[in-house]
Design a protein that fits this description.
Length: 508
Protein backbone atom coordinates (compact mmCIF):
# COMPACT_ATOMS: atom_id res chain seq x y z
CA UNK A 1 0.00 0.00 0.00
CA UNK A 2 1.13 3.53 -0.78
CA UNK A 3 0.50 7.08 0.48
CA UNK A 4 1.76 10.56 -0.33
CA UNK A 5 1.77 13.54 2.06
CA UNK A 6 3.43 16.94 2.02
CA UNK A 7 6.10 18.31 4.32
CA UNK A 8 8.98 20.76 3.81
CA UNK A 9 12.62 21.51 4.55
CA UNK A 10 14.81 24.62 4.73
CA UNK A 11 17.41 25.79 2.20
CA UNK A 12 19.04 28.98 3.45
CA UNK A 13 16.02 31.03 4.58
CA UNK A 14 13.63 29.54 2.02
CA UNK A 15 11.20 26.71 2.55
CA UNK A 16 11.18 23.89 -0.01
CA UNK A 17 8.22 21.47 -0.27
CA UNK A 18 9.04 17.81 0.29
CA UNK A 19 6.73 14.98 -0.78
CA UNK A 20 6.77 12.15 1.74
CA UNK A 21 6.01 8.96 -0.21
CA UNK A 22 5.41 5.88 1.93
CA UNK A 23 5.20 2.29 0.71
CA UNK A 24 4.23 -0.63 2.98
CA UNK A 25 4.96 -3.99 1.38
CA UNK A 26 5.88 -7.57 2.16
CA UNK A 27 9.33 -8.54 3.32
CA UNK A 28 11.43 -8.38 6.43
CA UNK A 29 10.06 -5.80 8.92
CA UNK A 30 11.98 -2.55 8.86
CA UNK A 31 11.76 1.18 8.20
CA UNK A 32 14.06 2.74 5.62
CA UNK A 33 14.19 6.45 4.77
CA UNK A 34 15.73 7.48 1.44
CA UNK A 35 16.14 10.81 -0.34
CA UNK A 36 19.32 12.57 0.92
CA UNK A 37 18.19 12.76 4.55
CA UNK A 38 20.56 14.13 7.18
CA UNK A 39 21.15 12.58 10.60
CA UNK A 40 18.13 14.24 12.25
CA UNK A 41 15.82 12.91 9.53
CA UNK A 42 17.34 9.41 9.52
CA UNK A 43 16.96 9.23 13.30
CA UNK A 44 13.25 9.99 12.94
CA UNK A 45 12.52 6.29 12.41
CA UNK A 46 13.20 5.71 16.11
CA UNK A 47 11.03 8.64 17.19
CA UNK A 48 8.27 7.64 14.76
CA UNK A 49 8.23 4.02 15.92
CA UNK A 50 7.78 4.96 19.58
CA UNK A 51 5.33 7.80 18.87
CA UNK A 52 3.09 5.53 16.77
CA UNK A 53 2.95 2.83 19.45
CA UNK A 54 2.46 5.26 22.35
CA UNK A 55 -0.38 7.00 20.47
CA UNK A 56 -2.45 3.82 20.37
CA UNK A 57 -1.60 2.75 16.80
CA UNK A 58 0.32 -0.27 15.53
CA UNK A 59 3.66 -0.14 13.80
CA UNK A 60 3.25 -2.45 10.75
CA UNK A 61 5.43 -5.56 10.95
CA UNK A 62 6.26 -5.18 7.28
CA UNK A 63 8.86 -3.55 5.10
CA UNK A 64 8.31 0.23 5.09
CA UNK A 65 10.08 2.50 2.61
CA UNK A 66 9.80 6.27 2.94
CA UNK A 67 11.03 8.36 0.03
CA UNK A 68 11.57 12.11 0.48
CA UNK A 69 11.16 13.74 -2.92
CA UNK A 70 12.82 15.42 -4.69
CA UNK A 71 15.57 12.90 -4.05
CA UNK A 72 18.42 15.22 -5.06
CA UNK A 73 17.55 17.85 -2.41
CA UNK A 74 19.26 17.59 0.96
CA UNK A 75 16.71 17.27 3.78
CA UNK A 76 17.59 18.86 7.10
CA UNK A 77 15.75 18.94 10.44
CA UNK A 78 13.20 16.96 12.42
CA UNK A 79 10.08 18.74 11.10
CA UNK A 80 9.36 15.84 8.70
CA UNK A 81 8.64 13.45 11.61
CA UNK A 82 4.91 14.12 11.61
CA UNK A 83 4.47 13.55 7.87
CA UNK A 84 6.47 10.29 8.04
CA UNK A 85 4.35 8.94 10.92
CA UNK A 86 1.09 9.92 9.23
CA UNK A 87 2.32 8.42 5.96
CA UNK A 88 2.89 5.07 7.68
CA UNK A 89 -0.54 5.19 9.29
CA UNK A 90 -2.30 6.00 6.01
CA UNK A 91 -0.32 3.51 3.92
CA UNK A 92 -1.05 0.73 6.42
CA UNK A 93 -4.78 1.55 6.38
CA UNK A 94 -5.03 2.57 10.03
CA UNK A 95 -5.91 6.18 9.18
CA UNK A 96 -7.93 6.62 5.98
CA UNK A 97 -7.60 10.07 4.41
CA UNK A 98 -10.81 12.05 4.64
CA UNK A 99 -11.76 14.42 1.81
CA UNK A 100 -8.97 16.79 0.84
CA UNK A 101 -6.98 16.42 4.06
CA UNK A 102 -3.95 15.19 2.12
CA UNK A 103 -3.75 18.69 0.59
CA UNK A 104 -2.22 20.09 3.79
CA UNK A 105 1.39 20.64 4.80
CA UNK A 106 2.37 18.60 7.90
CA UNK A 107 5.20 19.87 10.10
CA UNK A 108 6.37 18.85 13.55
CA UNK A 109 8.93 16.89 15.55
CA UNK A 110 7.56 13.86 17.38
CA UNK A 111 8.23 13.11 21.02
CA UNK A 112 8.42 9.45 22.06
CA UNK A 113 5.02 9.72 23.76
CA UNK A 114 3.40 10.99 20.55
CA UNK A 115 3.46 14.69 21.40
CA UNK A 116 4.41 17.25 18.76
CA UNK A 117 7.29 19.56 19.54
CA UNK A 118 7.97 22.98 17.92
CA UNK A 119 10.49 23.26 15.10
CA UNK A 120 12.37 26.14 13.50
CA UNK A 121 11.58 27.54 10.08
CA UNK A 122 7.80 27.03 10.12
CA UNK A 123 7.06 30.43 8.55
CA UNK A 124 9.21 30.04 5.39
CA UNK A 125 8.10 26.42 5.02
CA UNK A 126 4.43 27.39 5.13
CA UNK A 127 5.11 30.23 2.70
CA UNK A 128 6.58 27.66 0.28
CA UNK A 129 3.10 26.21 -0.31
CA UNK A 130 2.21 26.28 -4.00
CA UNK A 131 -1.26 26.47 -5.51
CA UNK A 132 -3.52 23.51 -4.94
CA UNK A 133 -2.79 23.13 -1.23
CA UNK A 134 -5.28 24.27 1.37
CA UNK A 135 -3.25 24.89 4.50
CA UNK A 136 -0.85 23.53 7.07
CA UNK A 137 -0.86 21.50 10.28
CA UNK A 138 1.88 22.85 12.55
CA UNK A 139 2.97 22.38 16.17
CA UNK A 140 0.80 24.32 18.60
CA UNK A 141 3.77 26.38 19.84
CA UNK A 142 4.56 27.49 16.26
CA UNK A 143 1.03 28.52 15.31
CA UNK A 144 1.51 32.15 16.37
CA UNK A 145 4.17 32.85 13.75
CA UNK A 146 1.96 31.77 10.81
CA UNK A 147 -1.66 32.33 11.89
CA UNK A 148 -1.75 35.85 10.37
CA UNK A 149 -0.93 34.67 6.81
CA UNK A 150 -3.62 35.44 4.29
CA UNK A 151 -5.15 32.68 2.19
CA UNK A 152 -3.55 29.80 4.13
CA UNK A 153 -5.56 27.81 6.67
CA UNK A 154 -3.50 27.03 9.75
CA UNK A 155 -4.30 24.14 12.13
CA UNK A 156 -2.33 23.60 15.34
CA UNK A 157 -1.75 20.09 16.71
CA UNK A 158 -0.39 19.00 20.07
CA UNK A 159 -0.10 15.27 19.38
CA UNK A 160 0.11 12.64 16.67
CA UNK A 161 -3.34 11.39 17.66
CA UNK A 162 -4.85 14.85 17.01
CA UNK A 163 -3.11 15.13 13.65
CA UNK A 164 -4.25 11.62 12.69
CA UNK A 165 -7.83 12.49 13.62
CA UNK A 166 -7.68 15.58 11.44
CA UNK A 167 -6.27 13.57 8.52
CA UNK A 168 -9.10 11.07 8.98
CA UNK A 169 -11.62 13.90 8.48
CA UNK A 170 -12.56 14.68 12.06
CA UNK A 171 -12.99 18.29 13.19
CA UNK A 172 -10.54 17.96 16.05
CA UNK A 173 -8.24 20.78 14.90
CA UNK A 174 -9.97 24.11 14.55
CA UNK A 175 -8.39 26.81 12.33
CA UNK A 176 -6.09 29.11 14.29
CA UNK A 177 -7.33 32.71 14.28
CA UNK A 178 -4.87 35.63 14.16
CA UNK A 179 -4.36 37.32 17.55
CA UNK A 180 -6.33 40.51 18.17
CA UNK A 181 -3.14 42.33 19.07
CA UNK A 182 0.18 41.67 17.40
CA UNK A 183 3.14 40.85 19.59
CA UNK A 184 6.87 41.07 19.23
CA UNK A 185 9.81 39.23 20.82
CA UNK A 186 10.93 40.77 24.10
CA UNK A 187 14.56 41.26 23.19
CA UNK A 188 16.21 44.12 25.08
CA UNK A 189 14.67 47.07 26.88
CA UNK A 190 14.60 50.20 24.77
CA UNK A 191 15.99 53.36 26.37
CA UNK A 192 13.78 56.43 26.05
CA UNK A 193 15.64 59.44 24.68
CA UNK A 194 14.20 61.57 27.48
CA UNK A 195 16.25 59.49 29.96
CA UNK A 196 19.50 60.72 28.40
CA UNK A 197 20.63 64.03 29.89
CA UNK A 198 22.70 66.42 27.80
CA UNK A 199 24.45 65.04 24.67
CA UNK A 200 22.53 67.35 22.33
CA UNK A 201 24.95 66.78 19.42
CA UNK A 202 24.90 63.01 19.86
CA UNK A 203 21.09 62.97 20.04
CA UNK A 204 20.86 65.01 16.86
CA UNK A 205 23.28 62.62 15.13
CA UNK A 206 21.17 59.70 16.34
CA UNK A 207 18.04 61.32 14.90
CA UNK A 208 19.71 61.86 11.51
CA UNK A 209 21.01 58.29 11.53
CA UNK A 210 17.52 56.98 12.27
CA UNK A 211 15.95 59.10 9.53
CA UNK A 212 18.08 57.57 6.76
CA UNK A 213 19.19 54.28 8.40
CA UNK A 214 22.82 55.44 8.40
CA UNK A 215 25.72 53.65 10.05
CA UNK A 216 26.86 55.41 13.22
CA UNK A 217 30.09 55.38 15.25
CA UNK A 218 30.18 56.81 18.79
CA UNK A 219 33.61 57.45 20.26
CA UNK A 220 34.42 58.72 23.74
CA UNK A 221 35.56 57.89 27.29
CA UNK A 222 33.86 55.19 29.39
CA UNK A 223 30.59 56.03 31.08
CA UNK A 224 29.54 59.03 28.97
CA UNK A 225 26.44 57.30 27.56
CA UNK A 226 27.54 55.72 24.26
CA UNK A 227 25.78 52.40 24.90
CA UNK A 228 22.71 54.19 26.26
CA UNK A 229 22.47 56.25 23.07
CA UNK A 230 22.77 53.14 20.92
CA UNK A 231 20.03 51.35 22.86
CA UNK A 232 17.77 54.36 22.45
CA UNK A 233 17.94 54.11 18.66
CA UNK A 234 15.30 51.34 18.21
CA UNK A 235 12.82 53.46 20.15
CA UNK A 236 12.85 56.25 17.53
CA UNK A 237 12.70 53.96 14.50
CA UNK A 238 9.32 53.49 12.80
CA UNK A 239 7.54 50.15 13.10
CA UNK A 240 8.16 47.44 10.56
CA UNK A 241 5.79 47.36 7.61
CA UNK A 242 3.99 44.07 6.98
CA UNK A 243 6.38 43.22 4.14
CA UNK A 244 9.43 44.02 6.27
CA UNK A 245 7.99 42.04 9.19
CA UNK A 246 7.59 38.95 7.00
CA UNK A 247 11.21 39.31 5.81
CA UNK A 248 12.49 39.60 9.38
CA UNK A 249 10.31 36.81 10.76
CA UNK A 250 11.43 34.38 8.04
CA UNK A 251 15.03 34.88 9.15
CA UNK A 252 14.25 34.64 12.87
CA UNK A 253 12.09 31.56 12.27
CA UNK A 254 14.90 29.75 10.44
CA UNK A 255 17.34 30.71 13.21
CA UNK A 256 14.89 29.39 15.82
CA UNK A 257 14.82 32.58 17.89
CA UNK A 258 11.10 33.36 17.65
CA UNK A 259 9.54 32.80 21.11
CA UNK A 260 6.34 30.70 21.28
CA UNK A 261 3.19 32.71 20.66
CA UNK A 262 4.93 35.41 18.64
CA UNK A 263 2.57 37.23 16.31
CA UNK A 264 3.43 39.60 13.50
CA UNK A 265 6.53 41.55 14.55
CA UNK A 266 6.37 45.34 14.64
CA UNK A 267 9.46 46.37 16.60
CA UNK A 268 12.67 46.47 14.59
CA UNK A 269 15.35 43.95 15.65
CA UNK A 270 18.20 45.06 17.89
CA UNK A 271 21.17 42.70 18.06
CA UNK A 272 24.22 43.27 20.26
CA UNK A 273 26.69 40.35 19.93
CA UNK A 274 29.62 40.02 22.33
CA UNK A 275 33.06 40.99 21.06
CA UNK A 276 34.14 37.31 21.15
CA UNK A 277 31.69 36.47 18.34
CA UNK A 278 33.15 34.47 15.46
CA UNK A 279 32.90 35.42 11.79
CA UNK A 280 30.54 32.48 11.20
CA UNK A 281 28.23 33.53 14.03
CA UNK A 282 28.25 37.12 12.82
CA UNK A 283 27.90 36.61 9.06
CA UNK A 284 26.21 33.19 8.98
CA UNK A 285 27.31 29.72 7.96
CA UNK A 286 27.87 26.31 9.47
CA UNK A 287 27.60 22.82 7.98
CA UNK A 288 23.90 23.44 7.41
CA UNK A 289 24.10 27.22 6.80
CA UNK A 290 22.05 29.39 9.11
CA UNK A 291 21.72 33.18 9.28
CA UNK A 292 24.15 35.08 11.48
CA UNK A 293 23.79 38.20 13.60
CA UNK A 294 23.88 40.51 10.58
CA UNK A 295 20.82 38.77 9.14
CA UNK A 296 19.04 38.65 12.49
CA UNK A 297 19.48 42.44 12.51
CA UNK A 298 17.87 42.75 9.05
CA UNK A 299 15.73 45.93 8.86
CA UNK A 300 16.94 46.79 12.35
CA UNK A 301 20.09 47.66 14.31
CA UNK A 302 23.35 45.78 14.81
CA UNK A 303 25.21 47.24 17.81
CA UNK A 304 28.90 46.49 18.33
CA UNK A 305 29.98 47.77 21.74
CA UNK A 306 33.73 48.20 22.38
CA UNK A 307 34.30 47.81 18.66
CA UNK A 308 38.14 47.58 18.70
CA UNK A 309 37.83 44.50 20.94
CA UNK A 310 36.29 42.60 18.03
CA UNK A 311 38.66 40.61 15.86
CA UNK A 312 39.84 42.69 12.86
CA UNK A 313 39.00 39.72 10.62
CA UNK A 314 35.44 39.69 11.99
CA UNK A 315 35.01 43.44 11.45
CA UNK A 316 36.40 43.29 7.92
CA UNK A 317 33.96 40.46 7.16
CA UNK A 318 31.21 43.07 7.61
CA UNK A 319 32.39 45.14 4.66
CA UNK A 320 30.66 43.12 1.94
CA UNK A 321 27.31 42.77 3.78
CA UNK A 322 27.34 46.52 4.52
CA UNK A 323 27.74 47.33 0.82
CA UNK A 324 25.53 44.67 -0.75
CA UNK A 325 22.76 44.19 1.81
CA UNK A 326 23.17 40.42 1.87
CA UNK A 327 25.67 37.85 3.11
CA UNK A 328 26.81 35.05 0.81
CA UNK A 329 27.70 31.66 2.31
CA UNK A 330 29.14 29.04 -0.04
CA UNK A 331 29.21 25.35 0.86
CA UNK A 332 29.58 22.14 -1.12
CA UNK A 333 25.78 21.80 -1.14
CA UNK A 334 25.32 25.20 -2.74
CA UNK A 335 25.46 28.96 -2.27
CA UNK A 336 23.09 30.66 0.14
CA UNK A 337 22.11 34.34 0.29
CA UNK A 338 21.03 35.77 3.62
CA UNK A 339 19.50 39.30 3.49
CA UNK A 340 21.06 41.78 5.91
CA UNK A 341 19.93 45.37 5.37
CA UNK A 342 20.86 46.56 8.85
CA UNK A 343 21.96 49.77 10.50
CA UNK A 344 25.39 49.39 12.08
CA UNK A 345 26.05 51.25 15.33
CA UNK A 346 29.47 51.02 16.94
CA UNK A 347 30.85 52.36 20.22
CA UNK A 348 34.48 52.63 21.18
CA UNK A 349 36.85 54.28 23.63
CA UNK A 350 39.70 56.56 22.59
CA UNK A 351 42.41 54.18 23.81
CA UNK A 352 42.85 50.94 25.80
CA UNK A 353 42.39 52.70 29.16
CA UNK A 354 39.62 54.82 27.65
CA UNK A 355 40.64 58.26 28.94
CA UNK A 356 42.70 59.76 26.14
CA UNK A 357 41.40 63.30 25.54
CA UNK A 358 38.99 63.03 28.49
CA UNK A 359 40.06 66.23 30.20
CA UNK A 360 39.19 64.83 33.64
CA UNK A 361 41.18 61.63 34.04
CA UNK A 362 44.70 61.22 32.73
CA UNK A 363 45.39 58.63 30.03
CA UNK A 364 47.97 55.98 31.01
CA UNK A 365 48.47 54.57 27.49
CA UNK A 366 51.51 55.09 25.32
CA UNK A 367 51.22 56.64 21.87
CA UNK A 368 51.95 53.26 20.31
CA UNK A 369 49.20 51.60 22.38
CA UNK A 370 46.69 54.24 21.31
CA UNK A 371 47.58 53.90 17.65
CA UNK A 372 47.44 50.11 17.82
CA UNK A 373 44.10 50.16 19.59
CA UNK A 374 42.32 52.47 17.17
CA UNK A 375 44.21 50.91 14.26
CA UNK A 376 42.32 47.67 14.78
CA UNK A 377 39.56 49.40 12.79
CA UNK A 378 40.78 49.48 9.21
CA UNK A 379 40.44 52.53 7.00
CA UNK A 380 38.05 50.81 4.55
CA UNK A 381 35.85 49.75 7.46
CA UNK A 382 35.75 53.26 8.97
CA UNK A 383 35.01 54.64 5.51
CA UNK A 384 31.69 52.78 5.63
CA UNK A 385 30.52 54.63 8.74
CA UNK A 386 28.21 57.43 7.58
CA UNK A 387 28.22 59.32 10.87
CA UNK A 388 31.13 59.39 13.32
CA UNK A 389 31.02 61.67 16.35
CA UNK A 390 32.84 62.20 19.63
CA UNK A 391 30.76 61.80 22.77
CA UNK A 392 32.06 63.75 25.77
CA UNK A 393 31.24 63.97 29.44
CA UNK A 394 27.95 65.61 30.45
CA UNK A 395 28.42 68.61 32.80
CA UNK A 396 27.19 67.71 36.25
CA UNK A 397 24.66 70.56 36.29
CA UNK A 398 22.91 69.00 33.25
CA UNK A 399 22.50 65.60 34.91
CA UNK A 400 19.67 66.88 37.06
CA UNK A 401 18.18 69.07 34.37
CA UNK A 402 14.83 68.84 32.65
CA UNK A 403 13.97 65.85 30.52
CA UNK A 404 14.51 66.29 26.81
CA UNK A 405 12.26 65.21 23.96
CA UNK A 406 10.97 61.69 24.39
CA UNK A 407 11.34 58.88 21.88
CA UNK A 408 7.67 59.02 20.87
CA UNK A 409 7.96 62.53 19.47
CA UNK A 410 11.30 61.82 17.77
CA UNK A 411 9.82 58.67 16.24
CA UNK A 412 7.20 60.87 14.63
CA UNK A 413 9.89 63.06 13.05
CA UNK A 414 11.70 59.99 11.76
CA UNK A 415 8.45 58.57 10.37
CA UNK A 416 7.79 61.81 8.47
CA UNK A 417 11.31 61.73 7.01
CA UNK A 418 10.84 58.08 6.00
CA UNK A 419 7.54 58.98 4.30
CA UNK A 420 9.37 61.56 2.17
CA UNK A 421 11.88 58.88 1.22
CA UNK A 422 9.10 56.44 0.36
CA UNK A 423 7.69 58.99 -2.10
CA UNK A 424 11.15 59.62 -3.51
CA UNK A 425 11.85 55.93 -4.10
CA UNK A 426 8.34 55.00 -5.20
CA UNK A 427 9.53 53.58 -8.53
CA UNK A 428 12.56 51.69 -7.15
CA UNK A 429 13.27 48.92 -4.65
CA UNK A 430 15.14 51.31 -2.33
CA UNK A 431 13.60 51.97 1.07
CA UNK A 432 15.87 54.51 2.80
CA UNK A 433 18.53 57.08 1.92
CA UNK A 434 21.39 54.87 3.09
CA UNK A 435 20.60 52.41 0.27
CA UNK A 436 21.01 55.02 -2.47
CA UNK A 437 23.80 54.72 -5.03
CA UNK A 438 25.42 57.44 -7.16
CA UNK A 439 22.72 57.06 -9.83
CA UNK A 440 19.86 57.64 -7.36
CA UNK A 441 21.68 60.60 -5.79
CA UNK A 442 22.13 62.29 -9.17
CA UNK A 443 18.63 61.56 -10.54
CA UNK A 444 16.29 61.61 -7.53
CA UNK A 445 17.78 64.32 -5.30
CA UNK A 446 18.08 68.06 -5.95
CA UNK A 447 21.11 69.92 -4.56
CA UNK A 448 21.59 73.67 -4.52
CA UNK A 449 24.70 75.05 -6.23
CA UNK A 450 26.31 76.08 -2.95
CA UNK A 451 25.64 72.64 -1.45
CA UNK A 452 27.41 70.96 -4.38
CA UNK A 453 30.40 73.33 -4.14
CA UNK A 454 30.76 72.72 -0.40
CA UNK A 455 30.74 68.95 -0.95
CA UNK A 456 33.33 69.24 -3.75
CA UNK A 457 35.60 71.41 -1.57
CA UNK A 458 35.35 68.90 1.29
CA UNK A 459 36.74 66.11 -0.89
CA UNK A 460 40.07 67.99 -1.13
CA UNK A 461 40.21 69.65 2.28
CA UNK A 462 39.09 66.60 4.29
CA UNK A 463 40.67 63.96 2.07
CA UNK A 464 37.39 62.16 1.49
CA UNK A 465 37.33 59.04 -0.64
CA UNK A 466 34.73 58.67 -3.38
CA UNK A 467 32.73 56.37 -1.10
CA UNK A 468 32.90 58.87 1.76
CA UNK A 469 31.81 61.68 -0.57
CA UNK A 470 28.63 59.89 -1.54
CA UNK A 471 27.96 58.92 2.06
CA UNK A 472 28.17 62.59 3.07
CA UNK A 473 25.62 63.41 0.37
CA UNK A 474 23.26 60.69 1.61
CA UNK A 475 23.48 61.98 5.18
CA UNK A 476 22.79 65.50 3.89
CA UNK A 477 19.66 64.22 2.16
CA UNK A 478 18.47 62.76 5.48
CA UNK A 479 19.09 66.10 7.21
CA UNK A 480 17.02 67.80 4.51
CA UNK A 481 14.25 65.22 4.93
CA UNK A 482 14.10 65.92 8.67
CA UNK A 483 13.80 69.62 7.94
CA UNK A 484 11.14 69.06 5.28
CA UNK A 485 13.27 70.80 2.65
CA UNK A 486 12.50 69.99 -1.01
CA UNK A 487 16.20 70.23 -1.90
CA UNK A 488 19.54 69.82 -0.15
CA UNK A 489 20.99 73.15 0.92
CA UNK A 490 24.49 74.19 1.97
CA UNK A 491 23.66 73.97 5.69
CA UNK A 492 22.51 70.37 5.26
CA UNK A 493 25.83 69.38 3.68
CA UNK A 494 27.71 71.29 6.38
CA UNK A 495 25.92 69.33 9.10
CA UNK A 496 26.64 66.05 7.30
CA UNK A 497 30.35 66.96 7.06
CA UNK A 498 30.44 67.73 10.79
CA UNK A 499 29.50 64.12 11.47
CA UNK A 500 32.76 62.78 10.03
CA UNK A 501 34.96 64.25 12.75
CA UNK A 502 36.25 60.92 14.08
CA UNK A 503 36.82 58.96 10.87
CA UNK A 504 40.50 58.46 10.16
CA UNK A 505 41.66 59.47 13.67
CA UNK A 506 44.39 57.24 14.99
CA UNK A 507 44.75 58.22 18.61
CA UNK A 508 46.93 61.33 18.39
Amino acid sequence: MFSRLLSATIAGIDGVPVRVETDVSGGLPGLEIVGLADTAVRESRHRVRSAVKNSGFEMPARRITVNLAPADLHKDGSQIDLAIALGILTASGQVPVGGDRDQYLFLGELALDGGIRPVRGVLPMVLSLAGGFKGAVVPYENSGEVCFLDGIEIRAARSLREAAGFLRGENCLKPVAPPKAVSTPDTQRTVDMAEIRGQAVAKRALLVAAAGSHNLLLKGPPGVGKSMLARALPGILPDLTREEALEVMRIHSVAGVLPPGTGLMRQRPFRAPHHTVTATALIGGGANPRPGEVSLAHRGVLFLDEMPEFSPAVLNALRQPLEDGYAVVTRSRGTYKFPCRFQLVGAMNNCPCGYYGDGVRECTCTSHARRSYVGRLSGPFLDRMDISIAVGRVPVEELGGARGEDSERLRGLVAEARERQARRFLSSDICVNAEMGPREISTLVTFSGSARRLAFDAVTKMGLSTRAYYRVLKVAVSVADLEGSPRVEEEHVAEALSYRQVVGERGE
